[in-house]
Structure formats: structure tokens, C-alpha cells
Amino acid sequence: xxxxxxxEITDKKTGNGHHYDASDISVLEGLEPVRRRxxxxxxxxxxxxxxxxxxxxxxxxxDEAMGGFCNDxxxxxxxxxxxxxxxxxxxxxVDTHKxxxxxxxETVMTTLHAxxxxxxxGYKVSGGLHGVGASVVNALSIFCKxxxxxxxxxxxxxxxxxxxxxxxxxxxxxxxxxxxVTFEPDQEIFKDIKFDWHTxxxxxxxxxxxxxxxxxxxxxxxxxxxxxDAEDIFYFRxxxxxxxxxxxxxxxxxxxxxxxxxxxxxxxxxxxxxxxxELDNVGVEIALQYVDDITDRxxxxxNNINTPDGGTHVTGFKTALTRTLxxxxxxxxMMKESEGGFTGEDVLEGLTVAISVxxxxxxxxxxxxxxxxxxxxxGAVATVFGEAFNNFLEENPDEAKAIINKSILALxxxxxxxxxxDSILRxxxxxxxxxxxxxxxxxxxxxxxxxxxxxxxxxxxxxCKQGRxxxxxxxxxxxxxxxxxxxxxxxxxxxxxxxxxxxxxxxxSIGDTFDLSKMRYHKIIIATDADVDGSHIxxxxxxxxxxxxxxxxxxxxxxxxxxxxxxxxxxxxxFYAYTDEERIKIVGKGSDVSxxxxxxxxxxxxxxxxxxxxxxxDTKTRSNKIHVQRFKGLGEMNPEELWxxxxxxxxxxxxxxxxxxxxxxxxIFDILMGSEVPPRKYxxxxxxxxxxxxx
Length: 695
Description:
The chain is globular, with a radius of gyration of 31 Å. The N and C termini lie far apart (81 Å). α14 (457-467) links the parallel β15 and β16. Helix content is 37%, strand content 18%. 38% of the residues are buried. Strands 1, 2, 3, 4, 5, 6, 7, 8 and 9 form a nine-stranded mixed β-sheet that branches. A five-stranded mixed β-sheet has the order 10-11-14-12-13, with helices on both faces. It has a five-stranded mixed β-sheet with strand order 16-15-17-18-22, sandwiched between helices. α4 (47-66) runs parallel beside α7 (197-210). The protein is an alpha+beta fold. It has 23 helices and 22 strands. It folds into four domains: 33-248, Histidine kinase-like ATPase, C-terminal domain (Heat Shock Protein 90), CATH 3.30.565.10; 268-415, 2-Layer Sandwich (Ribosomal Protein S5, domain 2); 439-563, Rossmann fold; 568-630, no CATH class.
């Protein structure tokens, strides 16, 4: 019996008793592993991964500039989903590699973990130390071509899906030096290939700040239909065409970067702190400035690679900042002993800082290089910054006093906020604080099935409560416009009845006791009216989630409902239109405008044909058999209409809220929701033509 059972198990695993031996082991050669598992190398095959290809090629040119071999880079977005990156660096070597027996250019482009950044004198400092950048881009491109100008000649080689199409050839003589890489991502890998101009510009702008004296030109040539015959390295700037473009060149380095980030902020003091020094073979460069704000902005780099998840260099900075301000404060008796000392949270409030470290041997956590792991960076940053910042405080007593006073204010506010939060949340939980009375909760306790609709006012709330699926859908009506939390602390926030109700309904708590695992709903749906007030309320809610519940957005739990704008009745058929274009399409191009009879702004639900006092409208509707009702708000819709159009998962349209560029989102929230009026006025004037106005 045991043998029979064993045979049965074997058959299930290997298929009818086939043996599992060495022939079943797959060995992927060349760049095939990249094509099989692209996410391991670029993180994702979505928009972020697509643009990561650009960063990999650009970083190679930037590394040439970091080494002092290049001072000019041109990035061009071409037609047919192609990108062209050119530099005036040394040019990739084209002579035969001793180990691979083929050109060094071919080795770099077709072999993983091959490059000039593993040792020797090719690069003392670089961002790409994994040796997979160019080869990964090549592997994931349907077309790739590299042209090299060096040693008096011009050389080229083409590839497709990581495989060469021919050997490296010398095309002509050349007096230039540099490298040109042109690639087209493979649609088998990237389903939606669309390079975003702003994403590319914002990323490269950072790099321009980090490499002093480097000129970078970005050109959008997607609309050019001519056939390109790019002979020169910087061919496109020589064409003389009026193409969308932008260029960067900064001598100020990180100081210029801080000025850019604080452009719309009110600085505390007149100076920007700056230090640049090498310690134990680690180059440290830091610039910072405090502003009148309650949020912090930390912009960290390692070998000019932005590390949004921080790492050892950020840890070293935070430790030194807290220690230095505590020491200075105690030395100058600027705080009462009863107040204790500053925490990292206190000293970071209102701080904008750029941290850049350069290491010869660098370790990132993952190929996407989002976090620095090199331990030596922590001690070097802490020592260099600690000494220099202490000297800065001693030499600038007025600046020091302003910074200390701001940190003391943050300390007091933190304690007040903690007390308020403990009183409202922790005490409430211990004493059995119930869910808000106006919350119509759902029956299921499974958060993955639960939805919370945030609606505007009791009228919409009443319709939603009647029309919902009580098993999975909860409704929380919000009265009026909630508090603008852009500059509000937690204690002031929780004094707001509406925000307090929302926080309790979510179940996650807030601040340092926030716990995403306790989220009661995995869909929070903002359902406000399609007017100015509704848009304002939606913006206030998004500000709240972005500033205090960022993890909820990152988890993909925030949605915006898209209720219909029109209800169209054609005879006995009923249609809903979500845009003016849909309305026109449903009504039909041949229909006269006079045939469309808008509903009264005060009406709700179905139009009641034949009612007394509406004889003219009734006659017109019957004769034309078309009736168009314009919904001004959710409160105008009856429960059946709300369910059918906005709440029924089978029919509704939801927009998921995500943050593609956290830094840009942070800046926009500062401008639109902050206290400074001039930046907001400038933003509105600059973007007025882009607004969709419903008149």
C-alpha cells in the first residue's frame, strides 16, 4: 500500500511517472533571465519601470560627468517610442575584451555584470555598480543601437531583444568623443509605452543640481516626422527646429536645489547651511534650510542616485542633527529641564535638506537603488555634518536661535498633540468609544470586502444609505468642508468633529499609533458633487489622506467616485452620461438642441411627466421622446439611481488615487493648500487655461 501511495504521489508531481532529472533544469543564457523576470531588474513593467530604462542609460552618461570626463548630455524623446541619450564623454571602449574575445562594447551591452565600475580606474565613483544597466535596457528593447566616437573613429552596433545583429563596425573617421545610445522598449514587455515629459524633466533636473558644471538638454522630438540622419553627437540641437525642450546647468549644486524646493516657502533665517567634505573615502555634501512649515523634505542621494527610501546616510544625518541641536540648546540654556530634549520628529519639522554621499564601493538594497545600505556612510555623514553644523550654529547665533525656537515649538506641539490624541483615541478605545452615530456601517467585518463612501451632506447621505448594499457598503456623511490640515497639527485636527469621525470610522488611529492592519475598509470612496464646493471638499480630504494617512494611499485604498452628469430618457430607454461627449453621443448628432430639456435644478429623480404646471415641457418631451436631466449633486439622485450608477460594483466608475511623484505632489499641496498666497495665485494664473470649467 505504501508503494502504491508513493507511486501515486510521484505520478502527480512529475506527470505519469516521468523522471525528474538534470534535463528538467533550465539554464538561461545571456540576457534571457532579464526578459523572463524583468521585475527583478527594473522593479516593474509599468510606467515606473519604463522610465527606469531612461535612468539607466542616462546614469552611464552622468557617471562620465561625475568622473570629470563629460560636461554635456542630450536626451531626446523620439517618435516610435524611442529614446536617444548622447554625451561627450570618453566613449565606451571598442577594443577586444581579453576574457570575452569580443568588443568591449558588445560585452557591456550583452553581458550581465559587465562594466567599468567594479574596480580599477575606470570610475572612482558611480551610481551603477551592479553592471546590469545598459545590458538590461538592451535586453528589454526591441531595438537598440550604440554609436561610439573615440580614438579617431565612429563605431556602431545594433541589437534586438539583447542579441547583436552584427559585430561592432567602424563606420567612419571622427574627431569627436562620446557615446550615443538609442533604444525602443519592447511592447512584449511593456504593454503601455508612453514616455512622460514631466517625469523625465523632473528626474534629470535633480541630476543637474548634483553635478556642478554639467549641461543637460532635453528635447521632445516626437512630433518630428522627418527621417533622422544623426551624424553628430548632439545632432538635434544642431537641427535648428523649434522643438519643446528644456536645459539645465547649475554651478550652485545642492544650494541651488534647496532654493528650488523652498521657492514657495518662507525661510527661517537668511542662510542656507552647506558643507562638502570627504572622510574615510566617503564624500559628504549636505545643504539645508528651515522654513515656516510643519512638514519636512529630505532629498537623499548616493552617488547621485536618488534614494527615496533613505538608508544609512539619512540615518547618520538624523542622528547628528538631533544630537547637535540638543547639545547646543542645553549648552546655551535655551530650554527648561522639565521639557526634556528634542526628538528626531521635533528637529525635522520645517526642514528642507539635501544629502549627497559618494562612495567608491557602494551597496544599494535592490537594483532599483531606492535605499542605501553602505554602513560606512552613516558614520561619515554623522561626523562631517555634526561638526560643521555645530560650527554653523556657533557662528550664526540669530539663525541658531530661530531654529531652536522652531524646534521648541514643535516639541510643545508634539506633546499637546500626543495628549489630545491619547485623550480622544486611546481613552476612547479603552472606554468603548462607539463608531460615529451618523456612520451607517456595513454588516461584514472583512475589511477586504468593505467599502466606505464619504459623501457631502445629509441629503446625499440619505440617498446613499437607502441605495447601498448593506452587507459591504458603509456611508459616512460629512457636514460642510472639513478642516484644511496642510498646516494643522493632530490636536487641532482631532478637535474637528468631521475628521474625528472619519479617523474613528477608519480604525487605523493616527500619528505614531497608526496601524494600517486595523483598517476597517479597503475601499474609501470619496463621492462629492460635481461642482466647485464638491471639488474643494474632495481636495481637503485628499490633503488629509496625503499628509496623515499616506500609507492608506500607497496601499491603494483611496478612490474617487464618478457619478453621472446626465440622465437621458429616449422613449422608454434610460441612459446615463458621465461626460458631455457621452451625452452628445447618446442624444445623437442629428438632434436639435431644442429637443433637449434640462431638468429643474431642484428636481430629484425621475422627471414626472404630465404634472400640473409643466404642460409645455411635457408636450416637448413627449413629442421629441428625449429628456435630459443634469445632476448637480448626489442629493438630487434617488436611491435607485445612486445604486445603479455610482455604487453598484458592476456598473460604477471609480478612479484609484495614487502618487506617481511624491515630491511633485508635496510641492503642489504646499502651493494650493499652504498659507502663502502669491505662489497659489501664480499657479492658478499659469494653469488657468488647463482648467475644465462647468458653467
